[in-house]
Write a structure and sequence with these properties.
2 copies of one chain form a homodimer.
Chain A (H helix, E strand, L loop, with lengths): L11 H10 L5 E10 L5 E9 H17 L7 E5 L4 H12 L3 E4 L6 H11 L3 E5 L6 H7 L5 E5 L11 E3 H7 L14 E6 L9 E5 H11 L12 E4 L6 H4 L1 H8 L2 E4 L6 H10 L4 E4 L1 H16 L11 E4 L6 H11 L3 E6 L6 E4 L11 H7 L4 E2 L4 E5 L14 E6 L16 E4 L2 E12 L5 E6 L4 E3 L2 E3 L1 H9 L4 E11 L3 E10 L7 H8 L11 E4 L13 H8 L19
Parallel strand pairs in A: 1-11, 3-4, 3-5, 4-8, 5-6, 6-7, 10-11, 10-12, 12-13, 13-14, 25-26
Antiparallel strand pairs in A: 1-2, 8-9, 14-15, 15-16, 17-18, 18-20, 19-20, 20-21, 22-23, 24-25
Helix pairs in contact in A: 1-2, 1-3, 1-9, 2-3, 2-6, 7-9, 10-11, 11-12
Keywords (chains A, B): Ligase
Enzyme class (chains A, B): ligase
Pfam families (chains A, B): AMP-binding, AMP-binding_C
Chain lengths: 567, 567
C-alpha cells in the first residue's frame, strides 16, 4: 500500500526560494581583496549584501547560464574563495539544472586542468586573484567555452569567452521558473583529494544536498537557525564547505566569508566584529586561532567572543589537547565532526551525550572521537574477511558507511572497488580503521594504508600522533611504519618541534607511555623542520613513508630495546 | 545527468535503530492509570522505561504482528492514550511494513466503528481504560481479527482474538531484519475530524514521516536534541502527536507522556518533576496550565519551570493575549505552529524574526500569526477565480499548500476537489482564508466556510474572536454569521463569560473597536453557558450557525445601529 503524500522533489531551488521569500533582509558579509600592501600581502575590504540580493543575482546567473546555451546536467566549474559570489553560484547553478563543480584552488595547475577536462566543464567561474591562470587554463582546456571572472580586475582580460561575472549577472534575465528537476539529478560535484591515483569525482544530487542540510541543522549537529551568524572557514571549493552555505540559507542564518584571510588574527577579528555564533574549519585553522587568542589574552586585550557557541572542527582529527585548550583557556566549545568528500561530508558529530558531565575527563575523551551518526547515516566495521565486527569500543575494523548522501560510485564509474554490497545493501568503504562503541561513538584509528602492522597486530598512528602532539614542545607529528625484520613494521615518530624548542625521543615516550601498551610506543623519533602537507591540509604520509621506510631504530636519536609485548 | 548518491530509502526503521544503537539509555516516562479514587477519578502511576527497552519491545511487536499473518500494507489501529506502549506501536508497526492507524478516542463509538471498517483494520491496539468498548467494537467490525489490550485489566477478557498486549510482546520474536521498504510505502494513517461529511483518511508515507521529523527538529521549529525532555500533550491519536514521538526518537530526546492526565495541575506537576524542556498542546491545554500557574503563584508556591524553553501551541490559533500572559506573568515562551491532518501536520511556526525586539508589540503580533513555513513547504493565496494573490500582509485569499509531507489525495480517492493542479504542480486547498506578508508570515483569517461575507466584503471571525477573548471577563467566544436582509451576513458574537462574571455587548464592542474597521464589529452578542466543542477540541461553528442563523440584531442584548461602512 502506497501512501498518498505529494511527490514534491527535494531540490536546491527550494533553498533559493526560502532566502528570497523569508530571509531577504538577512546579511551576507565577505572579506574581499581590495589590493596589496607594500609586502604584497592582500588587504581586506568588507563587502555586505543581503540574501534578497544574493537570490536575485543567483536567479540572474541561472538565467544567464541557460542563455549561453547550457543544458541540463552541464558542468559549471568554480575556482573561487569563500564569498557572496561563490554563494550565488552555489544556489544559481543547480537551480538552472546545471552542475556546480567546485575545484580545489590549492591544487597544482596541471591537476586543475586535468580535473576541468575530466569533468568536461563548459563554464568556469574564476576568482579575480587567480586571473593570471586564465591563459594557461584556456590553453589546456579547449572545451571551456566561457570564463567568468569573479570580482574586478585591474584591466579587462582581452581573451575570447572571458568576461566579468558581475556584468554578466547584471545583464542577464532572472530565471523565475525553474526547470523540472528530479531529486536524483546532479546538483554539484567535487573531486577527492586523490592521495592515491587520480582524483575521482563525487556527484551530489539535489536530494542529497537537501537531506544533508535538513539532517545537519539540528541542535546536536550544526545547530543553525535564523538568529545565527555563521563563518565557514572551511573552503567552499571543498565538499560544499561542509554544506554550510546551503544549510545556513535553508534556515536563514547570516553568513560571513573570510575569502583569502584565514590567519588567526583575521579570523579572530571577523568572529568578534560580526558577532559570529558558529564557525567551521580544519584543525590547522583553529591552531592559528588558538595562538592568536592566547596572544591577545596575554597582552591583556582579549577578543570578545561571548556569542560564539560552537567551533566545528573536521577534515582531520582535532586532538583532545586542542579541545581542552579552547574550553579551559577561552571558554569556547569545539565540536568535532567527521566526513569525507564521498559523504557530503557530514557523517558524525561528537557532542557530549546526555548523562555525562561536560567538565569530566570522559566528556573530553568522547569529544576527541569522531562521534555519533547524524540521522539516516549507518556505520559498521568489517574485518579483513568482510565479516562484521562488534561495537565494543575496542575492536578495530574497516569503517564502512551508508546513507542517502553517501556516494554509490565515482563519476564515470571509476574506483568501483570502494563500493560493495553487504546483505543486499550498498556500502562505501571509507578506507579508515575505526572502533564503534555501545553508544555509537566512532573513533578513527587510522587510514587503513597508514595503520602500522606490528607482529600481526594493529597500531593506530592517529592515537600516537594525538598523544605526542599534546606535548608542549611539539608542533606537528606524524607516526608512520618503518620496516622491521622481526615485527614486519614498527612505529616511527616524525616530529616538528615548536619554534625555538626541542625534545628527545625519551621525553616523548615517557610523556605518552601511561596511555599505551608498551609495544605501541614508537621505536624512534625523527626531528625535522617540516612535514609535507597536501592540498586539503592533510599530512602526506606516503611521502614520509617513502623517505623513512628503511629507517632503522638503530640510526635514530635513541636506540630503545626491542619492543616488549608483555602487555 | 544523474548524481551518484546511494538510493537509501527514508524509512521509520532508521528511527527505531537510532534509539536502539545510540540512545538506548534515554528515558520514556508515562503516567498510567493505577486505579480510581472514591469519586471515580483516575489515579496516576508513573511508569519509567528506556529507549533500549522500547526498541526491543517495538521489534517484538513487529515480529509478533507478522507472526499473526499480517502482510505489507495491512492496517493496525490504535485506540490509545499517550504512553510508552503507543510509542512502541509508532515504531514497531511501520517497521514491520504495516500501517499504524491512530483512531481518535474522543469520537462517538459509531464513528469509531465506521472508521475501523473504512480503513479495514485487521488488528486493534486498545487502551485498557476503553476495554468496555471491546464487545461493541467486535460486533460492529467483523473483519477485526485481533485485539491487543494495552495495560492490565482487572480480569482477562474472555473473547476470541482478544489478548494482553504485554504478554503478546513478551512472547513474540523480535524482528531483526526489516522488510524491504520503499519510502513511498504507507507508514501511518489518520482520519480528518470530518466536520463536513464523513471523515477522510490521510495516509502518511515513510518518506513523509522521516522528512517531517528532519525538517521540524531545528532551532526555529521544535528545537529538539538529545538533552531535551519533551512532553507531547497533543494526543498520539491525532496527526502523530505532531510528529513528536518520531522527532524525539530520531534525535534522542527523553519523552514524557501524560496519558489521561491533561488538566492544568497534572501538567504543571509533570513539567516540574520531569524537568521538561519542550511541550506541545492545543490552546485549551495551555489555558488550563495558565490558570494553574497563576493559582500557584498567587498562593506563593509557584512551580519551578526554569528549564522549560518552549510551549508549542497548535490545533487552533493561540490568542495574542495568551502568549503575552505566559511571557509576562511566567517568563514562558509559547511558539505558535500551524498545520492540518493533511499536512502531517507541521506547515509553519511563528518565531520572532531576526531584527525584531522580542519584547516589542511587533514581536507579539507576529507570534500570534501562524508563522513562516518550515523548509520544503510552500504556501500561496488564491482568489475565487483561482488567481494568485499578492503577499502583502493585507490581501485575504484561499490558502493553498504543497510539500513532500502534504496529502495528494485521501484514502480510497475521496474528496478529490481539495486537490488540484496549478501551473503543473499539485496543491492542497486548506479551506482556510489567510494573508501572507513580505517576510512569509502567514495569518489565518478564517475557515472559508466560517468567513462572514458582509456587503460583498470578508470579515474574519477568528480575528474578532481573538480580540474578544482578550477581554478579562470572557472565557470563550465564537463569532458567526447571522443572516441579514441588507448585507447578506453580519457578525454575531457568542460568548461564555468567566465563572461569576458578566459583560455587555457595548463593553465588548468598545473594548475591541480600536482594532477594527467599524463595519467589522459584531452587531450583537449572545451570552451563553456553553459553546459546543468537537472531538478534536475545535468549536463546532456549524451547530452555532444552525442555532443562530436567523438571529436578528433586534433581538439581541442591544440593538446597535445599522453598520457604518464609512471606514
Amino acid at each position: 500500500m502506497q501512501g498518498n503524500m505529494m511527490d514534491v522533489q527535494l531540490t536546491v531551488p527550494t533553498i533559493l526560494e526560502r532566502i528570497r521569500t523569508q530571509y531577504a533582509g538577512r546579511e551576507v558579509v565577505s572579506l574581499l581583496v581590495a589590493g596589496r600592501d607594500e609586502q604584497g600581502n592582500p588587504v581586506p575590504h568588507k563587502h555586505r549584501t543581503t540574501y534578497g540580493q544574493v537570490a536575485d543575482r543567483a536567479r540572474r546567473l541561472a538565467g544567464g547560464l541557460l542563455g549561453l546555451g547550457l543544458t541540463k546536467g552541464d558542468r559549471v566549474a568554480t575556482l573561487a574563495v569563500n564569498s557572496f559570489r561563490h554563494l550565488e553560484a552555489y544556489l544559481g547553478v543547480p537551480s538552472a539544472g546545471l552542475v556546480l563543480h567546485t575545484v580545489n584552488i590549492r591544487l597544482h595547475p596541471e591537476q586543475i586542468a586535468w580535473i576541468l577536462n575530466h569533468a568536461e566543464d563548459r563554464v568556469l567561474l574564476i576568482e579575480n586573484v587567480f586571473a593570471a591562470m586564465i591563459p594557461a587554463i584556456k590553453a589546456a582546456c579547449p572545451h571551456l567555452e566561457h570564463i567568468l571572472v569573479l570580482g574586478p580586475t585591474p584591466q579587462p582580460i582581452p581573451l575570447p569567452g572571458v568576461r566579468d561575472y558581475d556584468t554578466f549577472v547584471q545583464e542577464s534575465e532572472a530565471l523565475t521558473r525553474y526547470p523540472d528537476l528530479d531529486e536524483r539529478d546532479a546538483a554539484a560535484m567535487c573531486y577527492t583529494s586523490g592521495t592515491t591515483g587520480n582524483p575521482k569525482g563525487v556527484v551530489y544530487t539535489h536530494r542529497s544536498t537537501v537531506l544533508h542540510s535538513l539532517a545537519s541543522a539540528p541542535k546536536d549537529g550544526l545547530n543553525v537557525g535564523e538568529a545565527d551568524t555563521v563563518l565557514p572557514i572551511v573552503p567552499m571549493f571543498h565538499v560544499n564547505a561542509w554544506g554550510l552555505p546551503y544549510t545556513c540559507a535553508m534556515y536563514g542564518a547570516k553568513q560571513v566569508y573570510a575569502g583569502v584571510f584565514a590567519d588567526g588574527r583575521s579570523v579572530a577579528t571577523l568572529l568578534q566584529d560580526e558577532a559570529v555564533t558558529i564557525t567551521a574549519g580544519v584543525p590547522t585553522i583553529w591552531m592559528g586561532l588558538l595562538a592568536e587568542l592566547d596572544r591577545a589574552a596575554q597582552a591583556g586585550q582579549p577578543y570578545v567572543l561571548g556569542g560564539l557557541e560552537r567551533l566545528i572542527v573536521g577534515g582531520s582529527a582535532a586532538p583532545e589537547a586542542m579541545i581542552r585548550a579552547f574550553q579551559t583557556r577561552h571558554g569556547l566549545s569545539l565540536l568535532q565532526a567527521w566526513g569525507m568528500t564521498e559523504t557530503h561530508p557530514l557523517g558524525t558529530a561528537s557532542g557530549v551525550p546526555y548523562g555525562v558531565d561536560a567538565s569530566s575527563d570522559e566528556a573530553f575523551t568522547l569529544r576527541a572521537k569522531q562521534g555519533r551518526t547524524v540521522p539516516l547515516i549507518e556505520l559498521d566495521l568489517l574485518d579483513d574477511q568482510g565479516q562484521r565486527l562488534p561495537h565494543d569500543g575496542k575492536t578495530m575494523g574497516r569503517l564502512i558507511i551508508r546513507g542517502p548522501w553517501v556516494a554509490s560510485s565515482y563519476f564515470k564509474g571509476e574506483g568501483q572497488s570502494n563500493f560493495f554490497d553487504l546483505d543486499g545493501q550498498g556500502w562505501f568503504d571509507t578506507g579508515d580503521i575505526a572502533t564503534l562503541d555501545e553508544r555509537g561513538y566512532m573513533h578513527i584509528q587510522d587510514r587503513a594504508k597508514d595503520l602500522i602492522k606490528s607482529g600481526g597486530e594493529w597500531i593506530s598512528s592517529v592515537d600516537l600522533e594525538n598523544a605526542i602532539m599534546a606535548h608542549p614542545a611539539v608542533n606537528l607529528c606524524a607516526v608512520i611504519a618503518m620496516d622491521d625484520p622481526k615485527w614486519d613494521e614498527r612505529p616511527l615518530a616524525v616530529v616538528t618541534p615548536k619554534p625555538g624548542q626541542s625534545v628527545t625521543h625519551d621525553e616523548l615516550i615517557s610523556f605518552i607511555a601511561p596511555r599505551f601498551a608498551k609495544w605501541w610506543l614508537p621505536d624512534a623519533t625523527v626531528l625535522t623542520d617540516s612535514i609535507p602537507i597536501g592540498a586539503t591540509g592533510k599530512i602526506l604520509k606516503r611521502e614520509l613513508r617513502d623517505q623513512y621506510r628503511s629507517y632503522s631504530s638503530t640510526q635514530g636519536l635513541v636506540t630503545p630495546a626491542a619492543p616488549d609485548r608483555s602487555e
